[in-house]
Every structure is written in C-alpha cells, then in structure tokens.
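Quick one, tokens below. Sequence please?
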C-alpha cells in the first residue's frame, strides 16, 4: 500500500511538471523562449543570421526561429499569415510603409509606445524617421535598417576629363552643370554625366528634400523643375532615356558597372553590392573599381546632407504570447548593439553614430577618401513613402503618371494635373 501511494505521488508530480512546461514561454521560471520571426531572402541576406546569432549569444534563454516568406509580395503574404487566428509569429519585419499601414489597420501589430516610454528609448537617434511612420500619435515599429540616397561617381571618368570630383554640398544647378561637363555624346565613346533608374523616386523625390513637401500632398506642381531637369538632360544626352531603359531592361547596377556613367543617384544599399561584385570579379574593376560617394544634391537654401530614405523595421504581433520578450528583441536589433551587427556586413543601420559609421568605412573596398566617409552623415532624412492609410493608392496613381511624363505620352503640365486630379479623388473618399 505504501509503495502504491508513493507511485501515485510520483505520477501526480510528473503530470504537474508536464503541464507546467506547457505554460507561456519566457515565464519567470527561466524557461527557454522561442521567438518566431518573419523575414525574407534568408539565404542571400547575411545580416538575418548575424542578428540571430548575436542576439542568442547575449540572451542564452532565447532562441530565434526565422521564417522566410520570400521577398516577392512579402508584405501581402505576411498580412495573410497574420490575419489567421492560428498565427504564431512573435516578431515581424516591416518591409515597406504601405504594408505597414495594412498591418496597423488590421490590428495585427501592437503599439510600442508604452515599451518605448518604460525603457526610455531615444527616438531622436532615428533622424526623424519614426515621426513619419507614427499613426494617430502611436508608433507600431522601430527601424533597424535605413537605406538613404547618395551620389555614386566614377573617379576615373572625372580624372580623364580633368574635372573636379562631386562634393558633399552641391545644389541641383551645380550638379547639373557638373554632369554636363563630363558628358561625351560621341557615338561609340559615349559618357553619360549622370544616370536615373526608371523608378519614380529617382525624379519625383528630388522635390521633397526641402522638408516642405511629400508625395502625399495632393498638389504636385513642386515637381515641375525636377521633371524639367531630367528631361532636359535626356534631350542633351547627359543621361540615358527612360524609354530606352524600359525597352532594354537595363538595371542601374549594370549601367554604373559598365564604366560609362560618371554619376548616379542611388541608395546606399548599392555600396555593399559594388564592394562584393568588384572583389569577386563580377564587375570589371578597370571600369568601375575607382569609385566614391557624396551626399545627395539639394535645392537652394536646403541643408547639405538632406536626403531620401527607406526604413526596414520590426514590430511585435498582436497574437504573440511573448510580447515582453519580443519587444526586447525589437529594441536590441533596432538599438546600437544591433546597429553594429548590421554595419559589420556593410549594411546601413537606422542608428548611425560615428563608431558605427567607422565600422562601415573600415570594410575592405569602401572608398578611402574623406568625402566618401563624410557622405554617410545625414542631416535630414525624409522617407520616400511616409505613412498614410491610403498610401498604396497614392503610390499607384503617381507611378502611372510618372511613366506617362517620362515616355512623352503626356506633357509635364498635363501629367502633374492628372496626378492632382487622381490623388484628390483618393483623398476625398
């Protein structure tokens, strides 16, 4: 009888222990927490694994499970995943603002404001980016990556032409004059003073650098001088034609690496691509190996270092059972610890201190001149796409009429009027 009682007591203890193990992850007992994290392109993006390993190394009771949803339609797939009652994501990566708007509207992610206040997170470190994704006074993501636009230039082309390099403080007029100085229109020996990819952002977003306008304005006459600038450069052979680029499908990386482009407005993400592909031999170092960067050109009266940017952020899902642990991961990745991990692979974190910038500039293959290093200092960051509930519709309308202007199907004046009319209908819904 005594043995039977002991056996029953042991069984009761085992059952109790089993059910205790089924409790919420990350309880005060110190149980291991597994955070499920939505990402894309794990195999080709080094920093995902770098972040996971660095965080796990400093948080021994936390494991990060990455789920690759692919880059094609990532935000659409993510919104579908989070709309189901059975979702078990704890942390999700925010790829773009329109997708962010969708998740906020679906209540799929939580406001971080209470956590930010409790942990005294200094949002000023994000150079104004968080202000542009605040929704009704609340913030639902923290950025951990920030890609901003700079001017890439081919030093050999300027040396051969005997023309001084671009500087970190150029007005648009000075930039245009410089591009024209190094342009050669001789057939078979062309040199293009500058280059614009076919994205709407390469033209329209020049107009938002004054901090007074955004693509959400609904009235777009401020874009007129920038369309005139680019179309006049096309006409004079200073840059390739939009229609040719569309027809040929020429990627901006192929244009610059071909060695006949003197300057190119492009995002900082191209830096790591250039370094990697020159080192591997995919790009011919004789054609594009001697390169540098400077800050984006600006309008008269606008501070040098004002530029356009895109952020990649992290959010905590509404469905998580581990909100505190998920927030800690978001805070760490978006803070200075995560920033150092990002910088170590040549990527640009949302927080850029002098120490973090020095990690990037010390990477083998980064230009050694002082101007290229200085170009990493951003004074004002304006998001290409700030938050608005109807931002996706506005984007589509502007994309459509941008193409019409650049192909000559519509005049600049008619195209801008069409933008005004289309966006007015969206805003007045």
């Amino acid at each position: 009888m005594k043995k039977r009682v002991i056996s029953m007591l042991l069984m009761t203890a085992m059952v109790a222990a089993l059910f205790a193990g089924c409790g919420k992850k990350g309880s005060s007992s110190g149980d291991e927490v597994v955070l499920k994290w939505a990402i894309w392109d794990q195999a080709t993006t080094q920093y995902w694994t770098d972040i996971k390993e660095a965080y796990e190394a400093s948080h021994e009771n936390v494991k990060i499970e990455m789920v690759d949803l692919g880059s094609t339609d990532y935000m659409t797939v993510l919104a579908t995943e989070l709309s189901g009652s059975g979702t078990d994501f704890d942390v999700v990566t925010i790829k773009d603002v329109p997708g962010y708007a969708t998740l906020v509207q679906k209540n799929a992610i939580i406001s971080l404001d209470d956590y930010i206040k409790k942990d005294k997170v200094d949002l000023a470190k994000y150079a104004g980016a968080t202000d542009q994704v605040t929704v009704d006074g609340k913030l639902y993501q923290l950025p951990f990556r920030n890609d901003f636009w700079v001017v890439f230039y081919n030093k050999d082309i300027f040396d051969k032409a005997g023309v001084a390099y671009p500087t970190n403080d150029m007005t648009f007029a000075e930039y245009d004059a410089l591009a024209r100085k190094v342009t050669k229109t001789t057939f078979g020996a062309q040199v293009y003073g500058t280059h614009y990819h076919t994205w709407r952002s390469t033209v329209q977003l020049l107009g938002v650098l004054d901090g007074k306008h955004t693509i959400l304005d609904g009235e777009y006459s401020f874009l007129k001088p920038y369309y005139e600038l680019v179309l006049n450069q096309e006409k004079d052979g200073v840059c390739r034609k939009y229609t040719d680029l569309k027809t040929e499908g020429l990627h901006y990386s192929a244009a610059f690496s071909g060695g006949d482009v003197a300057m190119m407005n492009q995002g900082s993400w191209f830096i790591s691509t250039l370094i990697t592909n020159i080192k591997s031999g995919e790009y011919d170092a004789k054609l594009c190996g001697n390169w540098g960067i400077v800050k984006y050109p600006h309008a008269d009266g606008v501070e040098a270092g004002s530029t356009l940017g895109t952020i990649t952020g992290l959010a905590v899902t509404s469905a998580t059972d581990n909100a505190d642990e998920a927030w800690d991961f978001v805070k760490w990745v978006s803070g200075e610890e995560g920033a150092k991990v990002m910088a170590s692979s040549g990527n640009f974190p949302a927080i850029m201190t002098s120490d973090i910038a020095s990690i990037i500039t010390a990477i083998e293959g980064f230009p050694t001149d002082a101007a290229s290093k200085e170009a990493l200092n951003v004074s004002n960051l304006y998001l290409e796409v700030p938050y608005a509930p109807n931002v996706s519709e506005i984007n589509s309308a502007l994309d459509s009429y941008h193409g019409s202007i650049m192909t000559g199907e519509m005049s600049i004046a008619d195209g801008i009027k069409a933008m005004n009319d289309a966006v007015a209908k969206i805003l007045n819904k």
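The first strand starts at residue 33 and ends at 39. Residues 1-29 have pLDDT under 50 and may be disordered.
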